[in-house]
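Box 4.2: Ligand-aware structure prediction
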Amino acid sequence: MRRRDAAVVRAAFHATPVFVAKAEGAVIEDVDGNRFIDFAGGIGCLNTGHRAPRVVDAIRRQLDRFLHTSFNVLPYESYIALAERLNTITPGRFAKKTVLVNSGAEAVENAIKIARAYTKRPAILAFEDAFHGRTYMAMAATSKTHPYKAGFEPFPGDVYRVPFAYCYRCSYSLQYPSCEVHCARHIEDTFKRVVAAESVAAVIVEPVMGEGGFITPPAEFFPILSEICRKHGILLIADEVQSGFARTGALFACERLSLEPDLITMAKSLSGGLPLAAVTGRAEIMDAPGPGGLGGTFGGNPAACEAALAVLDMIESEDLCARANHLGDRFCKRAAEWQSRWELVGEVRGLGAMQALELVRSRETRAPAEEETKQVSQYCYEHGLITITAGSYGNVIRLLMPLVITDSQMDEALDVLESALATVWEKKGAVAQLA
Ligand SMILES: Cc1ncc(COP(=O)(O)O)c(C=O)c1O
């Protein structure tokens, strides 16, 4: 840790002071020989698990052939095969094209470039609580101020923000369903009072919000939003960087939420642990930028493309979508008990295995329990479970375990989480009594 602090910037934050020696499936071993169940999956990159054998084999085979040519200079087949595959498996039965890049943020940057090139309009609409990455345009589309935006101003212009369907903390203080999904409908009002509809190139949205706290909108939200976009010729970009690749019980969360986006951004679990990201979308939109307008030195690295093809095979042959639903159900049963026992557990929510607990100081006020959330996370790693938090208020514990986790590992992990919640809740009670 001393070496780390001396050599590495403090901004490259790490949540857990555990140094990894090796990892397999859903288990990590640290340099001292301690074993941990991994509920973080490298921030949702390991739906197929650490070192999935068929992914490692595919990478190894590529290492023996060639490592890099840059697709912009010399093409190779795996890039094309992956593009064909993504064009087929992403939502929407229309002709599609794909560009491969290196990170989620870069995918977002490119989706916005493509949308602007196609529509010849400047503005982008993004949501409160959204996270789209740390590069400038992605950061402009991101909502949370600390630590992502504060101090890095000014941001690129023409990004406008509207509330998301975060029903537990509705920005309009309304209640679902009597609200009639006001947040989605109110976008029409934004076009009158904030930015003209004909100036808007695209709406960018995470179908299930990730860093924002695993927020799934009600069923009506996306049909209403899609209709508004269609009416005004605005493109819909679905950012599936975190929600993609079986996490929500479908290959893409869009499928579960009746959303057929024009463009979709993907990264994280696409390539089983190697850096790779993609934008896939309607062919005529994707082809709006001219030759040389998109790409980069490393985009679509050959080893990462081979890994991604193996990941997609594995999701299909091992039915990881069904597995995600099974794990989600297993979690929900336990979490419902916790919610009935401890006021700390304000809301249990999610889709498939993309599940989370929002922790609050009081059910009535819903005051975010940020400190308690940190304590739960710390208790977990001290007892063999790696977790990460989320939410604009830092009070959400999210589940991003590999979907290949066994039932007994999952139960063991949930036992740790349960005792973490119990310990933090009891400690809170003891402190209150002392006061
Ligand atoms: C929805 C979403 N978009 C974009 C990003 C940025 O991805 P990356 O960290 O690979 O740049 C993230 C990362 O967490 C994300 O969750």
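In the box above, the bound molecule is pyridoxal-5'-phosphate. Residues 43, 103-105, 108, 131-133, 206, 210-211, 239, 241-242, 267 surround pyridoxal-5'-phosphate (CB under 6 Å).
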